[in-house]
């Protein structure tokens, strides 16, 4: 049995206003908190015990998931008094682990949607005798990520953080945010202080001669750190492009959660999700979007690639394209909001006030 650590302590700053009231892993994707998909995939891979490393809005997780028995898991929760970074969070939960010193521990970040073959990563770790094994994926433009070049045998040779010049881009392989640590290696991370596993732990282990193994798995992978990516990930789950055993319904163009009301002539496409108690009015068109619980899309509105927060309202004939509307916000009738604009929680835009808006600063 492989146990796991799930890192869910981040503030989700890039996702605001979605994360003002909700920690990033608890924002709904395809009808359930995103964390549900990660837990379900780990359980399907044979993981039984998971320790959640929490910090921001930590009090939200346990009331929702409890001991994990509903998912066939045993969950424990460890809250950081002060943010400790990725490496510090891993070290902070070490006392809750049950693995022997030479056994593998799976670690993954709480904002990655992936089709990673988890058993294959664990098998790679065991077969190569690595101290740490990393899931690597290939991306067309790696400048926003940490590069991880490997030799012919897959052994990691360097860690290069966010290169910018062509000379620095020596590979298209990036750190994909899932790892297997030999249990004893976790205890070498300094305790009780912030540590970045990407910038300190991994380069330090490499400098000391440790064996860090890379496994390239180029199945579905998406960093959900921005609102646009989060909306896309939710749609991909509904459409069946991204794998998860936790989608609460059939894959297809739309997912309407029990209790939602959708007008017969409204059109929902592109993996749109309509949450519980949400309303979509007559003639509205919603494409590739997430409408959270209790939100209202009034008659004739057009919503594309957008996220509508819990309890928010979009007025009649309003057009949203690539917009994020915070919880409880009201966008009046006959507005037009495009290109990544974010409307803060509980804000109010009067009827006809905005015909077009560029991205928020």
UniProtKB/TrEMBL annotation:
Residues 4-236 form the Nucleotidyl transferase domain. CDD domains: NTP_transferase (cd04181). Coiled coil: none annotated. Residues 254-338 form the Mannose-1-phosphate guanyltransferase C-terminal domain. InterPro entries: GMPPB_C, Mannose-1P_guanyltransferase, NTP_transferase_dom, Nucleotide-diphossugar_trans. It comes from the Bacteria. Signal peptide: none annotated. Belongs to the transferase hexapeptide repeat family. This is NDP-sugar synthase.
